[in-house]
Amino acid sequence: MEQEEIWDTDAAQRYDTPGTGMFAPEVLGPTVARLAELAGGGAALEFAIGTGRVAVPLAGRGVPVTGIELSRPMLDRLRAKADEATIPVIVGDMATATAPGTYTLVYLVYNTISNLLTQAEQVECFRNAARHLGPGGRFVIELWVPELRKLPPGQTATVCHAEPGYIGLDTYDVLRQHVVSHHFSFDDTKRARLFRSPHRYIWPAELDLMAQLAGFALESRHADWTGAEFTAESRSHVSVYRIPPSR
């Protein structure tokens, strides 16, 4: 399926979960605080801005935010929270679309770079970020660490999360570095709802090489937005890449 088909009206309506999940204050608060710090008083550009989960509170802190978004239903949800004058958005692919102006910060959160399904597209995403940044500008990526250590020989699927009313299952194609996330939601009836999304997973070292190809250097990497140490056991990372101050 194309990304436009995945992030349709139904997915957009179910995306926002105010106060819980990725919208929980303990998740969103540190994210916004760190991004505001990294913007350094300049303007920020969010790739795949979605429904404005991060952009709206970041703009509320006084950071001018512009977005790029492929899904019109996701953008419609954002427009219920902020108008075009408050948060301008360009409709297009984050690997190729161009936003006007120059930014001190480009950010891409919650594993979304993995929605680009080829290495070439992911490299172009880095290059697109570099095109929008001035000297010394930063590109921030939040991404999960591939969990292939969970795969016994011959097995291609793992349960990534389970709780009452929900099971998440990931199926892997290790040859192409692809994973499909299957999200099953259910209640007391006999019917369950399934949402699936394909991804191309990226190892941290591979991500660093993509950054180098686009003219970035790794500035920092932490396990989360609060600055926890990144270790071999970390399940995700927040990586900050920077364009040299003079080029």
From TrEMBL:
Keywords: Methyltransferase, Transferase
Record GO biological process: methylation
Pfam families cross-referenced by the UniProt entry: Methyltransf_25
A GO MF term: methyltransferase activity
Entry keyword Protease: no
Keyword Transferase: yes
Limits of the Methyltransferase domain: 45-137
Coiled coil regions in record: none
Top-rank lineage group of the source organism: Bacteria
Protein name, as recorded: SAM-dependent methyltransferase
Species for this entry: Streptomyces demainii
